[in-house]
Amino acid sequence: MIKLAPSLLAADFARLGEELRIIESAGSNYAHLDVMDGHFVPNITIGPPVIKSLRKTSNLIFDVHLMIENPERYIEAFSSAGADIICFHIESTENPLSLIEKIRTLGKRPAAAINPDTPVERVLPFLSELSMVLVMSVNPGWGGQTFLPDALRKARVLRDYIDLNGFACEIEMDGGITLSNLPRVIEAGVDVVVAGTDIFKAEDIPARIREFLLVQQKLSEISKRCKEK
Fold first, then answer.
1. Which H helix or E strand runs over 173?
2. Which of 2, 84, 103, 107 is the most buried (most CB within 10 A)?
3. Residues 130-165: pLDDT tens digits?
4. Structural domains in the chain, sorted by start
């Protein structure tokens, strides 16, 4: 089954703990936590102290997305704060393999993200070492943007490459994902769906999460029946 990772970037920052509990009780798999430094992207969000506080309120897998320069300097801090998955941008480091090894040494799952203008080939050499690869379907830095469809092509390339080589690497997609384009995202081979605005700005957040999960379930059933034929 596809996993759902609501992005707390779109949540009410005055009620982060409460909204985290809401998405967990509604059936989400991960909590996606965006970290921005005002340098790698033009926005500033949260850091290790906030993540550490949130960790006390939830058993969800914390999928921490580092949109920061020099991520090597902060891996230990985010690990200690309670991150389960630590995702760095392939564009932000000169030595991805060293960073991946450092994350694994700390007992965390390494992931790498690629921006919309970064060729998918840039991340292919590292898939055997990664737990997850994140395809950005908007330009990173702020929420509420429109989905960029070329991300689907990148996901298909990754899906074929991962399956061909038997790698244990999930594909995640983040940015502008809604109920309307969710089927295309899943059909492109994405394993982990990040959604922010479409979930947290809904009148009924648990109901919207159930809608996302229902679409995923129906597509999974259709795919299973097709394979059986």
1. strand 170-174
2. 103
3. 999 999 999 987 777 899 999 999 999 999 999 999
4. 3-228 (3.20.20.70)
pTM: 0.93
C-alpha–C-alpha distance, residues 55 and 150, integer Å = 34
Q: List the catalytic residue out of 37, 63, 174, 198.
A: 174
Distances (CA, A) of 159 to 39, 115, 171: 31, 17, 8
- The DSSP letter of residue 15 is G
Q: Which member of 34, 37, 63, 191 is catalytic?
A: 34
> Is the distance from CB of 222 to CB of 33 less than 8 angstroms?
no
Structure token pair of residue 155: 């996901």
Mention every residue, 6+ apart, whose C-beta is less than 8 A from residue 228: none
Distance from C-alpha of 143 to C-alpha of 33, rounded to nearest angstrom: 12
| 163 part of the active site | no
pLDDT 10s digits, 42-81: 899 999 999 999 999 999 999 999 999 999 999 999 999 9
Give Cα separations from 13 to 10, 98, 155, 167 (angstroms).
Answer: 8, 34, 31, 37
Cα dihedral across residues 54, 55, 58, 60: positive or negative: positive
